[in-house]
Design a protein that fits this description.
The complex is a heterodimer of chains A (231) and B (300). Chain A has 7 helices and 9 strands; from the N terminus they run βββαβαβαααβαβαββ. With 231 residues, chain A is of the alpha/beta class. By secondary structure, chain B is an alpha+beta fold. In chain B, 74% of the residues lie in helices and 8% in strands. Chain B has helices at 2-21, 23-58, 72-84, 96-103, 107-116, 137-145, 157-199, 201-209, 214-253, 265-291, 294-299, and strands spanning 61-66, 88-94, 124-129, 150-155. Chain B is elongated. Classes of the chains: A alpha/beta (231), B alpha+beta (300). The interface between A and B is medium-sized, with 20 and 17 residues.
């Protein structure tokens, strides 16, 4: 999905202005990492892209369409192609890890056994096979974060918006998640994620097959491209 | 096939949510059961009255007294008229001798008859009206009185009307009370289910964020209400059946009128089925009402 913003103004949850006549464009299939000193600003920015936080002024276009102008059925169709990872988007506490991911697949219309069996494979790759039948309360914070990310990726969304998906993820799982995200991007998914940890940057540097990440800074109400940072 | 999968999913999730809601589920089931118990009282009384009244209707009799000068030909003519009249179910000739024998069973009357020295009675017909012709009793009596051989026609239409009106009043009052109880229960069930939804608002929000289709988001909640209503009705049915059996036996044992078993078994089964349908309706409507709350609609 192509994500574009023109003359955008936006405030964060505390009312602080985070965008001021801002422009940005994330091409289809791109991998954008958003850096910001203000944690709430990055969250608000991603929620705005997810259609959850209407900008007071300016134009937001996703695949040339305004997600805030959709009817409820259009919006549902659009959401079904978007994966999100937000810290307040918790796992269902009364469903097992496996059932949490099953629910996502079913919500997106995947009811066949083949799709459901893919969940087991994914959990194995993520090193969570033995946690599949556990409730989220039995997981560590890092494992929960990993499951939340898997839930957003399992259906191969066209756009993945992730607010610091690496937060709390254990060192052993960090590389796994990074690889999953890169693989998803290679299949054509547009990724926009915020990252705060230096460990993330280290992981990117040591990755042999370094994805074409577009580094972007959110600062002083503007969105800057920082292409030079990875080179 | 997809529809069956989805229906299976909604039913399974509905049952799971009843289990997950624990305390609130118990509250809803108890409210539904208490409501149905009250409704069953109104319905049960109404049915017993209907049944007793229907039995009474079948015995709606009219006595047609013939004059002393009536000949056999006159009696045969009147019998022929009655046997062909569409309002009449049956007509039985009671000779004055048979009537006297019946009277003499009472020792006081027997003494009076002995004092008179002769049979003061006349031949008569005992006429049973058809159930749907009871309101035509007056016209039949008038037709009969036109015949010079008929001395008098006697029937308790006034009493019948009083009883009929009384039953009608009891039935309407019962229905109005049942309606009020039903609405009150609906209100309480809806608000209890709203509380349950409030406790799961984060899950509901997550479902919306995942883009789950409408039936997947509200279907299980609706199903939950239906199951809770059904459970309440099953409990009431079991309680009523136990009461019917236990109280029936006790009433028979102590020689009372077993009003509970005055209704035939099929009437009780019909009552239970009606209660189950009402339980499901209360649960479904309560859940639907809860799902119509503004904040729920905004999330879902």
């Amino acid at each position: 999905m192509l994500v574009q913003g023109f003359h955008l103004t936006q405030t964060d949850a505390s009312g602080l202005r985070i965008l001021e006549d801002a422009y940005f464009s994330f091409p289809e299939g791109s991998y954008t990492v958003l850096l910001s000193e203000n944690v709430m600003a990055a969250t608000a920015f991603l929620k705005m892209l997810a259609g959850e936080y209407r900008p007071p002024s300016g134009t937001l276009r996703i695949d040339h369409q305004d997600p805030y102008a959709f009817s409820s059925s259009q919006k549902r169709r659009w959401i079904s192609e978007v994966g999100v990872v937000f810290s307040d988007f918790k796992l269902f506490s009364d469903r097992t890890v496996e059932e949490n991911i099953f629910f996502t697949l079913r919500a997106k219309g995947f009811w066949d056994e083949e799709s459901l069996s893919a969940v087991g494979v994914l959990l194995s790759k993520a090193g969570l096979a033995d946690k599949a039948k556990l409730l989220p309360e039995a997981l560590t914070e890092g494992e929960k974060q990993l499951v939340m990310a898997l839930r957003a990726m399992i259906f191969r969304p066209r756009l993945l918006l992730a607010d610091d998906p690496f937060q709390g993820v254990e060192a052993g799982s960090f590389g796994i998640l990074f690889r999953f995200l890169s693989e998803l991007n290679k299949t054509g998914t547009t990724l926009v994620l915020s990252a705060r940890q230096a460990a993330f940057l280290e992981e990117v540097k040591k990755t042999e097959n370094n994805p074409a990440i577009r580094w972007t800074q959110l600062e002083n109400g503007k969105v800057y491209s920082l292409e030079e940072k990875v080179s | 096939m997809n529809f069956i999968f989805r229906l299976g999913y909604v039913i399974k999730e509905g049952i799971l949510q009843v289990i997950r809601a624990k305390g609130l589920s118990v509250a809803v089931v108890v409210i539904v059961a208490a409501t149905l118990l009250q409704l069953s009282l109104f319905l049960g009384v109404s049915r017993v009255l209907d049944h007793l009244f229907a039995s009474n209707n079948q015995k709606f009799e009219m006595a047609v007294f013939l004059s002393a000068s009536t000949t056999q030909a006159d009696t045969a003519r009147i019998q022929d008229f009655l046997s062909h009249d569409p309002r009449v179910d049956s007509a039985q000739l009671v000779s004055k001798e048979a009537a006297l024998a019946e009277f003499r069973k009472d020792s006081t009357i027997d003494e009076m008859v002995k004092a008179l020295g002769e049979n003061p009675l006349t031949d008569s017909f005992t006429v049973v009206l058809k159930n749907d012709a009871i309101d035509q009793a007056d016209s039949l009596a008038a037709d009969l009185k036109k015949d010079s051989s008929v001395d008098d026609v006697s029937y308790g239409k006034g009493e019948w009307e009083t009883l009929s009106n009384l039953i009608r009043v009891i039935r309407w009052a019962g229905l109005m009370m049942a309606g009020l109880v039903f609405l009150t229960a609906l209100f309480i069930v809806a608000n209890t289910l709203t509380l349950a939804l409030w406790g799961r608002r984060e899950d509901m929000l997550s479902m919306s964020r995942l883009g789950a289709p409408g039936w997947m988001r509200w279907g299980p909640y609706l199903c939950e209400g239906i199951f809770q209503g059904f459970l309440g009705s099953v409990i009431v049915t079991l309680v009523l059946e136990v009461i019917r059996r236990a109280a029936g036996e006790a009433l028979q044992k102590y020689g009372g009128f077993d009003i509970l078993n005055a209704l035939p078994a099929e009437e009780w089964i019909s009552l239970y089925l009606h209660l189950m349908v009402m339980g499901i309706v209360i649960g479904a409507m309560g859940a639907f009402w809860a799902l119509q709350k503004k904040w729920v609609k905004e999330i879902l």
